[in-house]
Amino acid sequence: MQTFRTTQHLEQEKRKLFSSSSRILIKVGTAVLTNDDGSFDAKTFQHLCYQLAELKRAGKEIVLVTSGAIGFGKVLFNLEEPLTVSSQQSSAAAGQILLMGRYLEEFSKYDIKIAQLLLTRENFSDRKSLANLWGCISKLFYLGAIPIINENDVISSDELQHSTTFGDNDVLASMAAKSLIVGSILFLSDVDGLLDANGNLISY
After folding, report:
1. Following DSSP, what letter does each residue of 120-181 receive, concatenated?
2. pLDDT score, position 160
3. How far apart are CA 17 and CA 15, in angstroms?
4. Other C-beta atoms lying within 10 Å of the C-beta of residue 10
5. Which of 10, 76, 67, 8 shows the shortest CA–CA distance to 187?
6. Is the pLDDT of residue 1 over 70?
7. What is the pLDDT of residue 155?
């Protein structure tokens, strides 16, 4: 019983923090946007965009970090795993257009403008790039748009080859959240939650 109360208390605290945050970053994993066979999950996608629109209508500044470009491109070209680096890059280049097209179509239903930002890890270590990024996103907030961030897989060939990418955008989302000083960060994933080095779930 005590465990239930503790879990319930933590859940209430998390919801309270989320509700009080004026700037929220949401990271969406590829598995959230696709079905088991890799096809696009339109129903979940529509529901996601509706909820983001509701948050924006409530006065929240939204930053969306989305995966899915490589997955969309892989389906488009009918490619099978394992993908070479060039296949991943080609899939990302084509899939990014499809992915953003979906977001553009869905958010237009709520009269919400969007903007695309393709980033690499180096953008967060270079002071000038970081300042430019901050200035751009601040202006997008002012204009009422939702910045949609993804990793620039096309020019990240070394990262793709040596597995030092952001990690399905998880690290990208964390670095962006820190740099953009968000109040809350929400990961939408098919993983149970944040895990420690031993694979155990971190509850809070």
Report:
1. -GGGGT-HHHHHHHHHHHHHHHHTTPEEEEEE-GGG-HHHHHTT-S-TTTHHHHHHHHHHTT
2. 57
3. 5
4. 12
5. 67
6. no
7. 81
Alpha carbons 106 and 35: distance in angstroms, whole number: 18
pTM over 0.85: yes
The 3-state DSSP class for residue 186 equals strand
Name the DSSP class of 103. Answer: H
Going from the C-alpha of 45 to that of each of 49, 70, 102, 107, 128, the distances in angstroms are 6, 17, 9, 11, 35
What does the longest C-alpha to C-alpha distance in the chain come to? Answer: 54
> Which region among 4-8, 71-75, 115-119, 133-137 has the lowest average model confidence (pLDDT)?
4-8
Structure tokens at 111: 């009269």
Query: Which long-range contacts does 159-166 make (Cβ < 8 Å, 24+ apart)?
Result: 159/120, 159/121, 160/85, 160/88, 160/89, 161/85, 164/121, 166/121
Q: Which two tokens stand for residue 52?
A: 């983001």
Record the tokens describing residue 203, joined without a space.
């509850």
What are 169's two structure tokens? 């955008």
Dihedral angle, C-alpha 197, 201, 202, 204, nearest 10 °: 160
Q: How far apart are the C-alpha atoms of 38 and 43, rounded to whole Å?
A: 14
pLDDT score at 157: 59
Residues 179-190 as b/e (b if ≥16 CB within 10 A, e otherwise) read: ebebbbbbbbbe
